[in-house]
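ESCALATION

Customer reports they have been waiting on this structure for their group meeting. Please prioritize. Original submission:
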Amino acid sequence: MPGLRLQGCRSLHLNEDNGRFVLLAILIVVYLLCGAAVFSAIERPSEVRAHGRWNGTLHNFSETFNISLRELNSFLREYEAAIAAGIRADALRPRWDFTGAFYFVGTVVSTIGG
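Update from on-call: job pushed to the front of the queue and completed.
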């Protein structure tokens, strides 16, 4: 059947602009994957060492002050939640007083623009 054409092959045909777009998209994804691999290879060992030092510090603190690691970790999670909410132990003024809010709004307006 020489006159028979496969319909599926025609749907795979890309014009030049679409081909360039697909090639560029593939190159960007490959570039990002390579960058992630390099960044991970550079940073991961440092992160593992820091995590080990932190665990040693927690263990020493736990033994020195006779606090279980579970209680200490629970306290630290509560502390992290307070910090994330903007609560500071040594704050001289509230974080969201009028002056702080005015500064934030000015930053947003100047960054986003109109």
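Sent to customer with the following note: The mean pLDDT is 86.
Escalation resolved.
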